Backbone:
């Protein structure tokens, strides 16, 4: 599982960081960002899903995998 934060939507409330501090951080601009650019470790997936579902403005999302061009 991978997650990203739409920083144009994020209000910086910190809920994601409170739920999943090993997955999200609040950056210097005061908005959340995913710590991991690659897949999240298996033991952090449930916390990441809880944060995604708990975001009050739905700023957290799972990016679609880019399709390879044949």
Residues:
């Amino acid at each position: 599982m991978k997650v990203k934060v739409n920083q144009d939507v994020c209000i910086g409330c910190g809920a994601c960081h409170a739920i999943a501090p090993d997955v999200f951080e609040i950056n210097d601009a005061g908005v959340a960002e995913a710590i991991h650019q690659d897949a999240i470790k298996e033991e952090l997936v449930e916390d990441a899903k809880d944060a995604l579902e708990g975001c009050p403005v739905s700023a957290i999302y799972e990016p679609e995998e880019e399709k390879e061009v044949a």
Q: What stands out?
A: Residues 66-70 have pLDDT under 50 and may be disordered. DSSP finds two helices and four strands in the chain.
